[in-house]
C-alpha cells in the first residue's frame, strides 16, 4: 500500500472504533445486554452487546461508499458496495466480550485490512496478505497499529518485543479452557502466568514487551488474530503454531490455528520443548 492508502485505512479504523465504542456505551443502558440472541456465523453464541458493536462497525463501512468484503464474527462474510471489491476487512468488533460485560478493563476491537483484486481474489488471501492492522483496548484508550514491512506502534509511538530468551524468565499468557495439551511443564518453568481474556489485546501486550509469550494450544480463530499477528511481527516478534510452522492460514471465518508467539526463536524453542 502507498502512504495515502495507509492513511485512509488507519483513519477508517479509528472511525469504526469510535462508533463501536459509542454503541457499547449506549448498549449499557439496555437491560437485555447480556442475553444471547443467536449463534453467530462463526458458530459461537452472540451476546446482544456483540450485535451493538458489529452493527456500529458495519454502519461506518457502508457510509464510506467503498467496495469491500467484510469478514466479521457474528455476521460472517458479506460484500459491501456494488463495485468489485478492492479490500478485505477481517474484524472482531468486540474482542473480550465477557470482560466487556463484567467491566474488566481489557476488551476492544481488532481490524485487519488486506488488498483485493476483485471479489474472487478472497480465496487466495492468507495472513501474509494483511497489510494494515489496528487493535484498541477500549478501557485504556490504547491503540496498537501496524503496517506491513514498516512499523508497529502503540499510541503512535514505535514498539518492540522484549529481549527475554528463556522460559524461566518469561511472563506467559495462555488459555487452558478445553485444551488437550498437558501444560503442567509450562506452569512451574516460567516466571509468571497471566490470563486476561482478550486475545487481540493480549497479543499486543507481547508486541510491546509486557508479555514474553502468548500461547494457545487448542485452536484460536484466524479472525481473532489477523490484526495482532501483524503487530507482533512488525514489533520484531516471532510467531508460529505449536508445531513450529509459520502462520500462513487462509483468511476464512472458520479457519483456526494454534499459536506460540514470542520475541525470538530461542524462547519459542524453549516453550515448544516444554510442551
Structural overview:
The strands form 3 sheets. The protein has an 8-stranded mixed β-sheet with strand order 4-3-5-6-7-8-9-10, sandwiched between helices. Strands 12-11-13-15-14 form a 5-stranded mixed β-sheet, sandwiched between helices. It has helices at residues 3-27, 48-64, 97-102, 199-207, 222-234, 265-274; strands spanning 36-39, 45-47, 68-72, 76-80, 87-95, 108-115, 132-137, 142-147, 151-154, 157-158, 171-174, 192-194, 213-221, 238-240, 256-262. The longest helix is centred in the N-terminal third of the chain and has 25 residues, at 3-27. It is globular. With 275 residues, the chain is of the alpha+beta class.
Tell me, rounded to a whole number, the average pLDDT.
90
The secondary-structure class comes to alpha+beta
Low-pLDDT runs of 5+ residues are none
Strand content: 25-35%
The residue fraction in helices comes out at: 25-40%
First-residue to last-residue Cα separation: 39 Å
- Please list the strands of the largest sheet in the order they lie side by side: 4-3-5-6-7-8-9-10
Q: C-alpha Rg, in Å?
A: 18 Å
Q: How many β-strand stretches? A: 15
* Succession of helices and strands: HEEHEEEHEEEEEEEHEHEEH
Report the biggest beta sheet as strand number plus sense, adding barrel if it closes. Answer: 8 strands, mixed
Sum up the overall morphology in one term: globular
Number of helices: 6
Amino acid at each position: 500500500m502507498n502512504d495515502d492508502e495507509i492513511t485512509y485505512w488507519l483513519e477508517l479504523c479509528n472511525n469504526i472504533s469510535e462508533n463501536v465504542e459509542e454503541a457499547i456505551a449506549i448498549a449499557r443502558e439496555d437491560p437485555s445486554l447480556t442475553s444471547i440472541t443467536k449463534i453467530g456465523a462463526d458458530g459461537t453464541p452472540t451476546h446482544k452487546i456483540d450485535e451493538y458493536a458489529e452493527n456500529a462497525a458495519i454502519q461506518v463501512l457502508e457510509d464510506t461508499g467503498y467496495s469491500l468484503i467484510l469478514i466479521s464474527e457474528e455476521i460472517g462474510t458479506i460484500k459491501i458496495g456494488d463495485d468489485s471489491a478492492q479490500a478485505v476487512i477481517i474484524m472482531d468488533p468486540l474482542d473480550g466480550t465477557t470482560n466487556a460485560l463484567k467491566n474488566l478493563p481489557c476488551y476492544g476491537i481488532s481490524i485487519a485490512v488486506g488488498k483485493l483484486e476483485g471479489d474472487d481474489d478472497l480465496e487466495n488471501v492468507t495472513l501474509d496478505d494483511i497489510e494494515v492492522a489496528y487493535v484498541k483496548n477500549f478501557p485504556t484508550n490504547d491503540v496498537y497499529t501496524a503496517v506491513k514491512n514498516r512499523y508497529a506502534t502503540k499510541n503512535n509511538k514505535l514498539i518492540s518485543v522484549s529481549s527475554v530468551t528463556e522460559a524461566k524468565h518469561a511472563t506467559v499468557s495462555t488459555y487452558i479452557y478445553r485444551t488437550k495439551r498437558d501444560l503442567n511443564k509450562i506452569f512451574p518453568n516460567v516466571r509468571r502466568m497471566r490470563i486476561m481474556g482478550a486475545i487481540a489485546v493480549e497479543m499486543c501486550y507481547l508486541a510491546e514487551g509486557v508479555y514474553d509469550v502468548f500461547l494457545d494450544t487448542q485452536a484460536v480463530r484466524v479472525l481473532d488474530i489477523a490484526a495482532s499477528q501483524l503487530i507482533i511481527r512488525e514489533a520484531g516478534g516471532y510467531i508460529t503454531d505449536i508445531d513450529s510452522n509459520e502462520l500462513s492460514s487462509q483468511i476464512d471465518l472458520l479457519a483456526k490455528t494454534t499459536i506460540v508467539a514470542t520475541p525470538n526463536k530461542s524462547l519459542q524453542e524453549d516453550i515448544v520443548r516444554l510442551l
